[in-house]
Each structure stands twice: as C-alpha cells, then as structure tokens.
Amino acid sequence: MIKGTPFDFAIIIFYFLFILGFGTFFGKYVKSTKDFFFGGQRFSWWLIGFSCVATTVGSYSFIKYSAVAYQYGFSSTMTYLNDWFILPLFVFIWLPIIYYSRITSIPEYFEKRFNGTTRTISVVILLIYLLGYIGINLYTIGVAFNAMFGWDVMITAILISFVCAVYMHAGGQTSVIMTDLAQALMLLSAGFLIFFLGIDKIGNVSSFWQSLPYEFKLPFSPFNKPPDFNFVGIFWQDAFGSSMAFYFLNQGILMRFMSVRSPRDGRKAMFLVCLVLMPLAAFAVANAGWIGRSMQNVGLLASNTDPNHVFVDVAFAITKPGIFGFIMAALIAALMSTIDTLINGVAAIGVNDIVKKFVPDREDTFYLKWARTISLAAAVIGVALVPLFMQFKSIYLAHGTFIAAVTPPMIVTILFGILWKRYTTKAAIYTLVIGSIAMLISIQWPSVLTLLSHGVAPEGLQYLRALYGLIVCTAVSIVITVLSKEKELSNIPGLVVDTIHEGKVLFKGGEPDDFDEGKIIHCYIAETSEGVSLSTKMMEYLQAKPGDILYIADERWWLGGLRSIHAKAGTPHQGVDNVLFLGSDLITQGNLDINRKVTVIKII
Amino acid sequence: MNSPWLPFFYQYGICTVFFIFTTMIALKKDVISLSHPTERRILLEIIVGYLLFIIFHASMIIFAGV
Fold first, then answer.
1. What are the φ/ψ torsions at residue A456 (nearest 5 degrees)?
2. Separation of alpha carbons A478 and A123, rounded Å
3. Which of A326, A272, A50, A339 shows the shortest CA–CA distance to A180?
4. To the nearest 5 percent, what fractions of chain B are helix, strand and coil?
5. Residue among A86, A75, A433 nearest A233 (CA)
6. What local confidence, expressed as pLDDT, does residue B62 receive?
7. pLDDT (tens digit, 9 = 90+) per residue, A43-56?
8. Chain B CA closest to residue A79
9. Which of B10, B31, B48, B61 to mutate to test the interface with A (most CBs of A within 10 A)?
C-alpha cells in the first residue's frame, strides 16, 4: 500500500534539498585533512552532544525500537538507558588519552600502543564494522520506504547514500556536525510529535496508561524470555557490546570527541548525551510502538499490524498530510546523520591507516582528495552490502548479530590497552585473532553459547554472543600477558591510564595546568603579523602563562565554535586590557571576524 | 526467575562493580584528584547521575502496577 500524499512527497524532497545545501555550505570551512576529519578541534560541547545523539539514532532505531516497543512495551528503552556506568572510564581515562595523544584513528592508537600488526588487524575489523553499519542503515530506510511508497529497497539505498556522499564529499566533519544538529532536533521533535498526536487520538494520557497491561509498563523485559527479547541477552549485547563499541570503537564517535574544543567540553558533551539526550531519544524512537499497542487495545489499529511496519502505520494513522511527510523526513534525517558519521569514519581510517601508510609524506591536499574519494567509495560499498542484511529475519536480529559478532575482540583489546600497562603486544594480537576466530566458531556452532545461556531458550542464544566474546577475549588477554614480557612504559606516553600526565606534557610542550579552565574573557581583535598576546591583567585573570594553549572563538555562542582557533599564548602586552593581538594567519585559520568581539579561555 | 526486580539487580549489580572499578583506577592513577574542587565536583556529578538512573528504573518498576 502506498502511503502519503503529494504534499508529503514535497516535504521529503524539500528536506533532501535543504540538507544537501546546508551540508555542502560548510565545505568552505574545510582547508585541510584536520578540518575534514576533526572540524579543526573547535566545537562546543552542546554541538558535539547533539551530533552524538543524531549519530546514535539511526533510521533502524525508529523501525527497530518501535517494533520491540509494540511487542514488549517500555522495556524497549533499556538499550538507551544503560550507558551511564561507562562514564568514569570514558571521561576520566579514554577521553584524555584520545585527545592529548592526538591520534587520528583507533588503528593508529593500536600502532602507537602495540605495533603495526595490531594496526593492520584493527583496520580490517573496523572497516567491516563501519561498512556493515552503513549497509544496515541503508537497508532499514529501504524497508521503511518500501512499506510507505512501495519503492525498491535498493533504489532507496542508492538515492540516500548519494545525497550523504555529496555533502560529506564537500564538508567532511564540519558538515557532519552541523547537519547533525539540524537532524537531531528534527528527529527528536518528530518523536515527540508522534506521542502527542497519538495521545490525542487515543483520548488522553490516562486512557493510554490504562490500556496497557502491567508487563508492558516494566522498564526491563523478563530476565530470560522471550528468546528474541530477553533482558540478559539484550543487556550483554547492547549495554556491554553495542554501547562499548559505540563509545570506544566507533571511529565516527571518536572523531566527534576529537573535534571538541577541549576535554572539558568533551566531558560536558558526554553528560548531555547520557543524562539528557539519550533518554529523550529512547522516548522518541520507541513511543510509536507504545502508541500503536494502545491504539490496538482500544480498537484504533488493526490487530495484525506487522511490528516492522508499526512506526509507519502509526505515523500514517495519527497524522495529517504534510505532518506525515515531516515524520518520514525525520526518519531519513536519522539515517543520514548516522551514515555521514560512518562515511567520515571510513574516510579517516582509509586515509590515515591505508593511504598514508603506502604513500607517505605527500602534501595535505593530496590526502584531502583521497579522503573525499574514499567517502564516495564507502557509500557505494554500503549500498552493495544491503542484500546481505536482507537475508535476516528481523532488523533487530540483523543489527544485533552483526555488532555482537564483530566488536568484542576490539573492545577487550582497547580496554586492556588503556587500563593495564603490562598488557603486551603479543597479548593484543592473540586477543584480536583468537577472539575473532572464537566469534566465527560461535556463529557456525551456536551450541558453544549454551554454557552462558542464563536459561535463555536455544533460539535466543545469539544475544549472548557478546558475553561469550568478552569472556574468551578477556581470558586470552590475561593468560598471554602473564606469559609474555612487559613492554617498557616509557614507550607509551599518554596511551595508558598510568601515563596520561605525560600525554598532556607532550600535547602542550610543557608542564600542563588544566585545573582552572573555565574562566572566560571577552575582547576585541587587533590584527598583527603573528602570534597571540593578551594584556597582563587578562593573563592573570585566566591564570595563564606564556606557552599555555588558549581557545579563541567568535563571541556568538550559537556558532558552537565554528569560527574559532587554538593558539599558544605569547608574551603579555601592556596596552588596553580588552584587546587581543592576534596574527593574521590565525585569524584566517579560525575564520574569525575582526569586527566582532571574541571570547578567550585557557585550555591547558 | 521472573520477578521484575531480577533484571534491575542484575544490571545494576554488574554495572556498579564496573563503575566503582573504573573510578578507583582513575583515583589510584591520579587521573583525577579529590583534593581539587573541580574534579571533586565532576566525580560527584557522575555519581549523582548514576543514582538518578537507578532511582528512575526502580520508580518505573514500582509505578508499573499503578
């Protein structure tokens, strides 16, 4: 059945054109590979936070979580509401390591921490992970459009990947972050719109609440059943498997946090994501399923509604022409905001871990050209993988199976790598290789998962694959490390929790002092030939010394750091207090307007 | 095996061990210092956030029957 009116089509086409123009516009801010991959390390915490959520919520999220919400209730939120426990590890340990060591990709971390072999293995695993992730997102949007308009799944995948690749090709990370802001706001508002319109259709909140059974309102599904959505399997697959992979392995997410103006802003972004935006997103992506169940219970929705189509069916049933188009455009926004991140991640790995390895020491423009070419190639490969995911019984199963099968060896290697200074290169290689083989064995012979079943029926055992992988890889890591020699700690400054301070020293080129970041001054720019100079009084107020790294940004906060620059403080001047002497090259690099005031903070 | 509290205690049991373990490592390795007010506040915010999630999930279980 074809849903939607010409007006809905017009809204969707307008959205496509808007995002294409908006994303391509930021191409002017890309002058180097640093800009293309990391947006120049200039963005504010709130921009990164929204961008992370836009990336988390893919098109598969609306379809997949609405489907399980419709079948099992509020427990559909458990995947999005269990990330807080990793915060100490992320903000205190992982964030300073990736930021101060200036790594450009996870494989690069592996080479610095271990050796080139681990880098090569991790490139292979990460590319499988990222390209597969692109493929599954394209597949889900294809399913949704097939349900709505009867379009062929592959045609939809090709069309959407083309739009993403075009603006990614132009603007890189800056385009990703800026379009993500628009897309995050759009998909969150679409989710809430569905809820309010749904409640209006049902009557009121009380009618909605009373129409749902007790089990439906519980925040967790039953411990070990049903096989396809039991708590224990989802916990290990999503809380430990997907969440860890998302924050520690997903190149696109890491590049977000490498794009942030300071680790302090990275910390605030993570708080915003986990405490505010993820709960809102959990509600936004799943409530169509709750509304659908309630509507069915009061006779407003057919009892034979396919769970995979419930999002589209509910949206169509409760909206008027135009609003339905907006909600479908939000679904596309969710997809594009995830795919553009993944494409940028593939480009980063392609350039930093493959091209630079085989063609070193070329000009930056050469690598920038490669980054853009790889972005296009990633979109094409993602489309080519769609038929593979079409073979799975459900989208939830396809997504979960894929993530759980690929990520545990990498997750365990990273965790041991950052937490245990004695963890050796040999152990890392064995963990990656044996762990990957063990995952393949569990796919071929799922009976190996029986020992960890927790009482889950055999047909649900694949959800415990992540736990199996974590146990096998942890055991290999510990045994091999104990049996092999310890690597000299001096070789890995800034790459292990023990050496984060040394990483800060290397980052700054001197003794770090990042305790007092937070004081802000506002001043006018006076253009000079080179360098940065604040008045003595302003330097004292910031508690900064010559050599400290300052962050200078256009005072318009809503630009989110788009016009900004990092620079080392020079010798203080004795002139007017609210004047900053700034080199013309830095003004150009930071896209700063000398007719506007800037804010200055000390970073480290 | 089907008490609604079993998943709650399973999740927060394992996650709390992980939470405390990683926090202790950060403290032991001097990545954060409790003697500094800013870092003490950040740690407190993280602990309060974690407690909020525990309270939220417990409340959902309690109010499901209302």
1. -75, 140
2. 23
3. A50
4. 80, 0, 20
5. A75
6. 94
7. 888 988 888 888 77
8. B11
9. B31
